[in-house]
Amino acid sequence: MKIEQIYTGCLAQGAYYIESEGEVAIIDPLRETQQYVDKAEAENATIKYIFETHFHADFVSGHIDLAKKTGATIVFGPGAKTDYDIYAAKDNEVFKLGNISIKVLHTPGHTLESSTFLLLDENGKEHAIFSGDTLFLGDVGRPDLAIKSDLTKEDLAGMLFDSLRNKIMTLPDDTIVYPAHGAGSACGKNLSKETVGVLGEQKKTNYALRADMTKAEFVKEVLDGIAPPPQYFAKNAMMNKSGYHEFETVLERGNTPLTPEAFEHLANEEGALVLDVRHETEFVKAHIPNSIFIGIHGGFAPWVGALITDLKQPILLITPEGKEEETVTRLSRVGYDHTLGYLEGGIEAWKQAGKDVESITSINVDEFSSRFKSDSIQVLDVRKDGEYKSQHLEGNNIKHFPLDYINDNMSAIDKNQEYYVHCAGGYRSVIAASILKARGFNKLIDIAGGFGAIKNSDLPTTNFVCPSTL
Question: Which residue(s) pair with 94 in the sheet?
């Protein structure tokens, strides 16, 4: 028996490769599926099953493409309905894989079809669970994504309580826990940085698994402090239910080099968004007018999903050299399949073609401190709500303007006003500045180093409050 976790940090997502006696199961595969095919071929094995723990909302799964390539059966939990062929398993149904078995435990709560897959070893012993978004390390899945007219988030939270108590917590303490996500995912609020754990330890440390917890307490605690889901979640879930373009087709189209002239023509002809994924320090120095910055070195895919509201938006890319294919791939993971190509030669080629570039003023914390003390300046803090409440600059001229909701809150600021923009370290502030600048806010100054630099300066800040006590 072989179990391999294939973890993707930018999505905080774990896919799983399980092999026994030449038969393979893949759990929650990523969009780019050739890696699983190659791995199975290298092991002289055949992919027999593709198990999906639920309809994922935070990424587009590769189950459909993988089934087409291999002939493997796609297995969802009870009640799953799709526009393509699947096998909807029954609760407690067992699937043989070589000389091991995978048992379906229907664990609704995160979504209605959510299921946990229990791996029974060669001797029939409970070895591991692949818990999807039902159980994380340190947390459980948010129960507010599958709300229907006759079903509230409180109803789903109650289902999750029952699923955990009746299906998960009854398993042996030495059962290995393989979750679908780790820290950084928006599918929970308190996920551990660890990506593999043991059930007994979770029973001791995970707030949602307290033995003396009532259902009412569980519902209250699991719903407390959940931020609204990113706008792309429902759209990705629908793609996972209804289908999508083949990844190889998306990659071939998006990984097309374009001259500055062809690039500019497509931008105008197709109404394409110019997405610049270089480092923020490069973007502030020179970028194409009206382009948006979301650096590939940061939380790229989730920020794209949160901020670009139309999945069908045509996109043209400015990338670091050699990062073109990776960028198209990572866009496709969250459903952005309409990349038209990239600027060959990057911003330098654009300049050499005699085309206009713009910049964003960026100052260090010493310069900002001097201006803050001597002038009545306006500051936009674009960090998340918890970060801001934990500690922020003091003053009536500080406005909390979280990047997550920038598209909804644009009317709350004045295009004629000058704003100094900061986040925690400098990545998100440049994203915010680029979006504002493209919308006609031209008096923006980025604070390099963000709040990390500010709190180590002599500027006045509120007392630090531990986020866990907020």
Answer: 103
Give CA separation, 157 vs 145, 177, 183, 211, in Å: 11, 21, 21, 17
Q: Give the amino acid at 317.
A: L
User: Which pLDDT tens digits describe the chain residue by residue (470 residues)?
Assistant: 999 999 998 899 999 999 999 999 999 999 999 999 999 999 999 999 999 999 999 999 999 999 999 999 999 999 999 999 999 999 999 999 999 999 999 999 999 999 999 999 999 999 999 999 999 999 999 999 988 878 999 999 999 999 999 999 999 999 999 999 998 888 888 789 999 999 999 999 999 999 999 999 999 999 998 888 989 999 999 999 999 999 999 999 999 999 999 999 999 999 999 999 999 999 999 999 999 999 999 889 989 999 999 999 999 999 999 999 999 999 999 999 999 999 999 999 999 999 999 999 999 999 999 999 988 899 999 999 989 999 999 999 999 999 999 999 999 999 999 999 999 999 999 999 999 999 999 999 999 999 999 999 999 999 999 776 55
SS (H, E, C) 23-42: EEEEECCCCCCHHHHHHHHH
Q: Is the pTM of this model over 0.85?
A: yes
Is the CB of residue 383 less than 8 Å from the CB of residue 426? Answer: no
Residue matched to tokens 């690039």: 263
DSSP string covering 169-186: TTS-TT-EEEESB-TT-T
Q: Which residue has the tokens 């940085």?
A: 193
Is residue 30 within a helix (H) or strand (E), and if so which, with residue range?
none
Beta bridge partners of 379: 398, 420
Buried/exposed code over 395-419 (b: 16+ C-beta within 10 A; e: otherwise): eeebebbbbbbbeeeeeebeeeeeb
Instruction: Output the CA angle 210-138-240, nearest 5 degrees.
Output: 115
Alpha-carbon gap, residue 380 to 382, rounded angstroms = 6
